[in-house]
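User: Some background: our group keeps a shared notebook of sequences we're curious about, and every so often someone picks one and asks for a predicted structure to add to the entry. Today it's my turn. The entry only has the sequence so far, pasted here. Could you supply the structure so I can complete it?
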Amino acid sequence: MRIHILVLDGVFDLGLAALTDTLDTANQVAGLLAHPPSPVEVALVGVRRRVRTAQGLTVPVVPLHGAVKPDVVLVPALGAKMPDTLAARLAHADMADAAVVLQQWSNAGAVAGAACTGTFVLAESGLLDGQRATTSWWLAPMFRQRYAKVMLDESRMLVNSARFITAGAALAHIDLALSIVRSRSPALAALAARYLLVEARGSQAEFVIPDHLSHADPVVERFEGWARQQLARGFSLEEAAVAVGASKRTLARRLHSVLGKTPLSYFQDLRVERAVQLLRTSSESIDQIATQIGYSDGVTLRVLLRRKLGRGVRELRARI
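Assistant: Of course. Here's the predicted structure to add to the notebook entry:
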């Protein structure tokens, strides 16, 4: 398998290293298997001859004219991590060149993957239109506004859709690389993960800070403030609309535009966030906590926690 890593100027150092080191680890431990797959060939390819990382390190890249067609192309994150700096970086001329080469390789049959802010580079090419995808959880509002045709689920750590693979923030680069290894040899992916001390993790939900996301829109921010005061009392769309000064339809539309959620589902997210906080900081039972956030018993809360947190939050599993 031939893998190209498309390296753009200002690439996130950790993301690039996570991809290359995970794939190299898989190559090195493959010989321990009874039936090892052939090694993957990894090349760093650039749309510019001179590429530096976000920390100023020079990256030796193969120019496009010298790169053969890949089986897989991966896009690591950019060093720009916040919406304003990321928007400015996406406006650079090399983005258009990256979009063209991604389209060419994809049309030739290559699988395309990206992690963290690299998902924005892939989305800029238009290849993710109509596809399911994930991205860095705190950039989900920006992603939805820029790429409305992409079906985004930022709660997921990794999303496979057609010939595209997207991964969440920062260390999800490892999950992305392991998914490529897994497509060739599940046994090798499992072995490499053990050497890297990486556990299976399907969700970003436990890392999300809901009120950070709500600040992307004043109506959503007002709703978030109102909702936190109503966790024990319960949800009412009519009361919420009055409290934020918008119609029920406008409130629902703004929540969906920014967060991709209904008012009720976001309200449940806040309940889960509060429940997790109490589980970590108090000795109260889950039934006692459920009462504090508006549930008559712990059954419904347990279901919500398991569904939204998945296999994450290991230290809480015994309590839920």
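Suggested note for the entry: The first strand starts at residue 2 and ends at 6. The longest helix spans residues 263-281.
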